[in-house]
Every structure is written in structure tokens, then in C-alpha cells.
Specification:
By secondary structure, the chain is of the alpha/beta class. Helix content is 35%, strand content 18%. Strand 21 (534-536) and strand 22 (541-544) form a beta hairpin. Belongs to the alkaline phosphatase family.
Length: 553
């Protein structure tokens, strides 16, 4: 199947392309850092670059600019528009997947399949480059992000599910998958069992503890900030939450102590959220925060001499564009937008914390704009505005003149910001567009041209020295229970309420297996595996290591 995909890919790219780097011949390196700005279109990059230049005339370029070397065609297994789960999954596994699938083989969509899909492998967990780095190369591994940790992109690196929102099953996999450093959001998703497991296995665990995060001297750590996602960089209190750049530096500091090298994924998570919310301030400011993290990674790579950097979004979001025509000056285009001191989400929190009579003052202080009477009226009728003098049951469901109305407070503020800027959005959803690709290699000049998302996986695998090995690793780690224990006495005990089913194997030794961790019981005694066990209810199948039969002897 992989060979067929590769042949089809070569045909789609054009075999005769010259001057492009042959991905299969890229030299392996000791360390690989993959940086993903979630939901970032080329126009988002342009907007961020222009706003930075407007505010800082001595900074016309981004950190990523010298290393842009191509574009990526990103897609799901059955269509050109993908969410973060299947698109990052493809980077991690080498297989296109379908909406909502986290490092899991898609089901066939018939004629809509972009590349051939083996229906017999539907819902099969797929080994990731992070798992391959740790298991096959003994490298340290790390994840840095600003969303909650079970969110799609970090989840794609260290878990497997056909439902990206099933945090109940995803979170414990990430805890038990032996990732050395995990830094980001989501304190509420690390439960007591998970926290105890980490501490008992030598991890430093920090929840909303910036001082502890900064002072910890151990090499294995989890540090989470915020119950869910972290704050946008522009809204962030630097006394409470670290920046993405600081977390990236901390992860590199810890991971680089491994003599075998490391694999690190860094995600600029909230660029995507700003795109969904059509908030141009959140869009450009969080991309600039991501670019600072890229600068940290690139500086390390150039000094270290053994590190490759790959920077690529997973998909586009929002379809932003800078409008106005040639008659618009840079001041007209960027002054108002660049002057905002908070994102729409950040402004919403302030607006809901202060009396209604202070509304105009808030926008003058944090946005430098004067609200109109119609805009103030829209706030008073917004269902999400807690301080409105109008009772909720008396607020209008729509504006008669259809000028401005939004039940979401953040959405209303985004509308006001957008109306005062020259940025426009085509959608609040994802977009099918080519993505920028930037790369740094210590020993060769990577010129990659236009490649598919499958090729991004091939590039990562070859840089890590595991090219062509993911399929075998998948077969080794995620075999079907009825194949592993064929001819043996086993049964699946149905799940109790809110629990998981249990696989019982009766051989010379009794094995009890519950999914979504790396812990099993052998004759009642707990043992840890080197990988997580996954259960898929759609197929009533446990996916587990092939060598488990050895434990029954």
C-alpha cells in the first residue's frame, strides 16, 4: 500500500521536476524539531509580517523567511479540506486520514478516496514519528503547544482515536506514551490517576506553576497552564503563563540532554482559533508569537549543528485577505489593527468584568477606537454580554437595519475589529489551500518545491532515520487482539458505566488488559509496556503489541 501511494504521489508531483531536493536522499540528523502553526494560511503570514514591519520598521522579515522552500498540498483521505486531526495525522503517520481521526487509518470513502484506501485497515491505530523516534531510535520526545493537551495536533503525535473530541480516551494515552516533555494547556484534563502515574515515573508535574516550570532541574516534565487552552499571547499575563517561545526553549533544554537526540513538535495552536473567530488581531499576534518560537528553534539548530527544523501549517482557517486596493496607504491598512492591545477574546473578558458605562473607555484604552451608538446598542443586545442594562429576555434577536449583531461577545468584538480594519474573511471554517513550507538542515540546502502532506511524513522519517519503518512499527505495536491471542482462551468483559472494557487472557499466566494506557496486569501484578493499548468500539477490537503472547507462557 505504501509503495502504491508513493508511486501515485510521484505521478501527481511530476517525475521530471528538477532542482527539488530528493526527499528520500535527505541526510538523517540527531535532532528534529517540527513546528506547526495551526490553521495558518499564506495570507496570515503576510498579515503578520506587515503588522510586524509597521510596528517595528527595523524588522521587515519573519524568522521563518530565509527558510521558506516550498508549499504543501494538505488534504483529508476523501477531500481537500481537512481539520487538524487528519492533516497532522498524515504528517505523523504517512497516511491521509479522514475528518476527526487522530493517527488512525481512515475508512474507505469509495470514489471520494484521493489515494487508494484499504478498507480492511479502517480504524487501525497508526504508529507516529514520535513513537518511532522513541521506540526505534531511543530519542527523547517532546510536545509544546498552547491549546489543551488532548487537542488534535498534540494528540496526533502520541495517541490514537477515530474521535478527536474523545479526550477521555486520548488524554490517558498521552500520559502513558512516555513523552519526556509536555508543555502547554489543559490542567483540567490531567486527572489524579494521570498525575500520580507521571510523578511515580520520575516526572516533574506543574499545574499553573510558572515558578516551578522555570526552576525545575529534572529532564522529564509536564507543565500545564489554564484549565483548557492557554491565553492568546497578546492577552497573556507573563507572571502566570510562559510564552510559546519560552516553552520551546525549555523543551529544547531538557530534550537535548539525551545522547541519542530528540524529536520535538511545537504548535502555534491559537492561530487557528483566531481564524475560526475571524479575529485579525489574534491571527497576526499569535502567529508572531509562533514565529518567535521558530526563532528559538532555529537559533538552537544553527549553534547545535545536528538539528533539522521543519515548519509547516496543517491547514488554512478563515480565508483571510488584506483588502483595500492600491490607494490604501500602509497607515490606513495597519495602524488601527496594529494598535490593539488585546485580541477579541481578551477584550471580551475585560468587557464582561467592568460596568457597561465603561464600555467606550475600554475600547479607547485597548483598541484606540471610538464605539458608535449602533455598536454600543449591539453590545447591549448581545446575549453574551453580561453587563448589559437590558435583561437577556428583552434583547433583540436581530438588528432591524441588519448593520451589526452577534450573540457571541467575542464574535461581536471580532466583527467590530474587522470592520475597522482592511482584513476580510471568506469563512469561519477551514480552507483548502497550499501551505508554506520552511526547512533548515545543518548539512544541505533543502529546496522542496510543492509536495503533498504524505511527503512531509517521508521527510520527517528520513531526517529521523526511520524511513520506511512506520508500517512495521504499526504491525508490531497495534496488532488485533484476536490475531495476537489466536487459539488461546480470552474474552472481552463489557465496560461498566463510564468505564472501558477489559480483555482477559487465560494462559499459563492470566493477563488483564484495559485500553488507553501502557499498563497491564500479569497474574494480578502490574507491568508497563513500551507503548499504549488502544480499543476501538466500532470494531470491538483491542490493538496491542504482537509480543504479548510471550507473557502468557
Amino acid at each position: 500500500m505504501k509503495k502504491m501511494l508513493s508511486l501515485l504521489l510521484l505521478f501527481s508531483l511530476g517525475v521530471g521536476i528538477t532542482n527539488a531536493t530528493d526527499i528520500q536522499k535527505v541526510k538523517p540528523v540527531k535532532n528534529v524539531i517540527l513546528l506547526i502553526p495551526d490553521g495558518t494560511s499564506l495570507q496570515t503570514v503576510s498579515l503578520a509580517r506587515w503588522c510586524q514591519w509597521y510596528r517595528n520598521p527595523d524588522k521587515p522579515h519573519l524568522n521563518i523567511d530565509p527558510y521558506i522552500c516550498g508549499t504543501v498540498r494538505s488534504f483529508c483521505s476523501n477531500g481537500p479540506v481537512g481539520d487538524s486531526a487528519p492533516t497532522t495525522s498524515c504528517y505523523m503517520t504517512g497516511y491521509p486520514s479522514i475528518a476527526g481521526f487522530v493517527s488512525t487509518h481512515p475508512y474507505s470513502a469509495g470514489n471520494d478516496d484521493i489515494y487508494p484506501v484499504d478498507p480492511d485497515k479502517a480504524f487501525q491505530p497508526l504508529a507516529t514519528v514520535l513513537e518511532a523516534s522513541r521506540i526505534l531510535k531511543n530519542k527523547a520526545t517532546g510536545l509544546v503547544f498552547v491549546c489543551e493537551f488532548p487537542h488534535a495536533t498534540p494528540a496526533d503525535c502520541a495517541s490514537h482515536s477515530y474521535q478527536r473530541g474523545n479526550y477521555k480516551n486520548i488524554a490517558p494515552q498521552m500520559v502513558h506514551n512516555k513523552v519526556d516533555v509536555v508543555l502547554g494547556g489543559g490542567t483540567s484534563y490531567l486527572n489524579e490517576e494521570g498525575e500520580n502515574f507521571l510523578k511515580n515515573n520520575g516526572y516533574g508535574v506543574f499545574k499553573d506553576d510558572l515558578k516551578g516550570f522555570r526552576s525545575y532541574e529534572g529532564n522529564k516534565m509536564w507543565a500545564l497552564f489554564g484549565k483548557g487552552e492557554m491565553e492568546y499571547d497578546l492577552d497573556r499575563n507573563p507572571e502566570e503563563q510562559p510564552s510559546l517561545a519560552e516553552m520551546t526553549a525549555k523543551a529544547i533544554e531538557k530534550l537535548s540532554k539525551n545522547e541519542n537526540g530528540f524529536f520535538l513538535m511545537v504548535e502555534g495552536s491559537l492561530v487557528d482559533h483566531a481564524g475560526h473567530g475571524n479575529d485579525p488581531v489574534g491571527l497576526f499576534s499569535d502567529f508572531l508569537a509562533f514565529d518567535k518560537a521558530c526563532g528559538v528553534a532555529l537559533d538552537f539548530a544553527k549553534k547545535n549543528g545536528e538539528t533539522a527544523i521543519i515548519i509547516v501549517p496543517d491547514h488554512g482557517t478563515g480565508g483571510p485577505s488584506i483588502t483595500g486596493g492600491s490607494s490604501y496607504s500602509k497607515t490606513r491598512l495597519f495602524k488601527t489593527l496594529s494598535g490593539f492591545k488585546r485580541t477579541a477574546a481578551g477584550l471580551a473578558k475585560i468587557v464582561n468584568s467592568r460596568p457597561a458605562e465603561e464600555l467606550p473607555e475600554i475600547f479607547k484604552e485597548y483598541g484606540g477606537i471610538r464605539l458608535t451608538d449602533k455598536e454600543i446598542d449591539a453590545f447591549y443586545n448581545c446575549k453574551g454580554y453580561d453587563k448589559s442594562p437590558i435583561p437577556k429576555d428583552q434583547r433583540k434577536d436581530k438588528k432591524e437595519d441588519n448593520v451589526l449583531y452577534n450573540n457571541s461577545l467575542t464574535g461581536l468584538i471580532s466583527d467590530i475589529i474587522t470592520a475597522r480594519s482592511t482584513v476580510r474573511f471568506t469563512t469561519s471554517g477551514h480552507t483548502a489551500e497550499e501551505l508554506f513550507l520552511a526547512a533548515y538542515h545543518p548539512k544541505e540546502n533543502l529546496q522542496l518545491g510543492m509536495i503533498d502532506n504524505i511527503e512531509v511524513n517521508h521527510l520527517l522519517c528520513n531526517l529521523l532515520g526511520v524511513g520506511g519503518e512506520l508500517d512495521n512499527l504499526t504491525a508490531s505495536l497495534f496488532a488485533k487482539h484476536y490475531d495476537v491471542f489466536k487459539g488461546m482462551d480470552y474474552e472481552i468483559i463489557p465496560a461498566e458505566e463510564n468505564g472501558n472494557p477489559t480483555l482477559i487472557v487465560n494462559g499459563k499466566k492470566k493477563i488483564e488488559i484495559q485500553p488507553f494506557t501502557n499498563i497491564i496486569k500479569v497474574d494480578g501484578k502490574e507491568e508497563q509496556l513500551n507503548s499504549v493499548i488502544v480499543y476501538v468500539d466500532r470494531t470491538n477490537t483491542f490493538y496491542l503489541p504482537q509480543n504479548l503472547t510471550e507473557l502468557t507462557r
